[in-house]
Specification:
The complex is a heterodimer. By secondary structure, chain A is an alpha+beta fold. Chain A has 9 helices and 17 strands. Chain A is globular. The two termini of chain A are 39 Å apart. The model of chain A has no long low-confidence stretch (mean pLDDT 92). Chain B is α+β, with helices and mostly antiparallel strands. Chain B has 9 helices and 20 strands. The chains are: A alpha+beta, B alpha+beta. Chains A and B meet through helix 6, helix 7, helix 8 and strand 13 of A and helix 5, helix 6, helix 7 and strand 16 of B.
Amino acid sequence: MAEVRLSSVTKRFRQTLALDSVDLTVPDGAFFVLLGPTGAGKTTTLRLIAGLDRPDAGTITIGGRDVVGETPAQRDVAMVFQQYSLYPHMSVRDNLAFPLRSPILRTPEDMVAAKVAEVAETLRITHKLDNKATELSGGEMQRVSIGRALVRDPAIYLMDEPLSSLDAKLRSELRVELKRIHASLGATLLYVTHDQTEAMTMASHVGVLDEGRLVQVGTPREIYENPVSVAVAARLGLPRINTLPAALFGSAPSNATTIGLRPEHIAEGEGREASVVRVEHLGDQTRLHLQLDGHDIVTLTDVHTPLRGGETIAIAPRDPLYFDAEGRRIA
Amino acid sequence: MAEIVIKNLRKEFGDFTAVQSSSFTIGDGEFFMLLGPSGCGKTTTLRMIAGLEIPTAGEILIDGEDVAQRPARDRDIAFVFQMFALYPHMIVRRNFAYPLVSLGLCRREANARVDEVARILDIADILNRPVGGLSGGDRQRVALGRAIVRDPKAFLMDEPLGALDAEFRERMAEELRALHDRMGATTVYVTHDQLEAMQMGDKIVVMNHGVVEQFGEPQDIYDKPATMFVADFIGSPAMNFLPFSGHVEPGATRADLGVATVAIPRQHEAAAGDLVLGVRPEHVRLSDSGALRGEVLASEYLGTTQIVSLETAHGPLKARVPSTETLRAGEPVGLEFTASTLTLFEAESGRALRSDLNAEVLHG
């Protein structure tokens, strides 16, 4: 395993600036999640590290070695794609063994068998080893394609939204599993996603990408509690943070234009009167959709609240975040 | 708008029974969810309401009139499909107007309706654009508009948001619900997504293997599941099940799990043998004094709360606790449950036992 470092990496596709002078360090042993919306530059970053694309400027090092001139095979990385790419005519066992049997690695067969058995155990697919790849469910196929990366012992694992094509239950299962696998292998992992739950629950480090720029790096907790901008604040947290005119609840820092209030950071029973538009019972939480001076506000309330649409409730900010006209955090 | 009553509805396809014997009532103006995994019979039920399938037995009353054996065109309801079925070569306005013209409306009337619907959906600016070039969201709005424009007795929707990505789906779900609140139209909506059902529905029917497992308001179904299937299907993470072998009597307020006794809502019926204690993750507290013990496997940070995975003598368990509590993997902890929220089930049938918690909802 190894540290991966990008310095001033820039990449253009014709007129589009995909990555704008990105500096990024994935520490040895980290579970680093790159989070951002479609088009932010997440997949481009992965492809540059993997060697599938070349940067226009900047350097990329893996374990201290400059790899920009190297082929993908020389870089010693393992990649998992969003779409499982298995050989349909092979058994699960042969699919898993395939990377080890590559002419470059020349692994002895008994070691191949041992490694395949170990990975199958980790991914809980031992009972499917002799099935053909096409006889698996979607979740099993994706586990096999993750397994194909795991049989190797690369400098870094690169994963591009590997869970996005799975259903919600399976995703939450595999989230826990991936985190466990990461811990037990002590591997370095760079994981790309637009799903904030994946970033929050799995990452040791989160990097937030926005329009080709890396805008914040930190632990999930640091980013959730201390976002540097309104864009980052809106990226983490469900329901989304409320962004309102700074003076809606009275005094605000002088250069603030926006107040950011997480749904759980709204006190009830004091402050200004808001009207209840709708009460949403989700089981484990109840959301109030409120209106105040024409602004929509969502807040969490007591699960069995007696409130109904049409009533009013007094609300006040608790732990507010303030942003200036450019969206930068100022308090 | 209309009330729809379903009575003992049944549908067989050859040897296969898709819907066993469903009965429920969709109130006038309700946003009503048919929820279940694929193959549970929810779409078949919807198609029978629409008249796209003729039931093998049973009644479908729309405003008191049995329409079960009538063709779709005589039912005055509008169907919105999962894949937006639009005319790709027509502009948006023509897509809207087409159903009206085929109903025999004159052009002036049709145009007035189209403008009204475009205003409701806030898409007046794209009326003259071809459907082909529209974004997914706008196409979805046009598909809805085509249903609304006829001013039918009820709307039927088959996973209309199923093809959208998560973030966008959340936004469309809110939009759809807000639209419903403005129009107050009876809507029957099929989904396999429990969160979507909880979020949008006034009432939910949960189906499994062609059988209605439970019918009621979202919060009641969440708090007072009638079966283990419902308890597991609704909520994320799902309800924890702690299997144990023992017995309870009417009036009992404690259950003996073997390693510990747990306070439960006062029971209304007797049961013995293989039982299951059901507890929602947010009703588990980690405390040193808890009689039931567990070991922390992992925790998932979610902002204000975290989900803690634990191993106990009764199997794996998940707890939702404030993220201010720090926990280490391997750490032993005690567990306490909020007694008034617990449900006991019979393991074999999966049926919930009646208690002070759920008696009102389960009634026999």
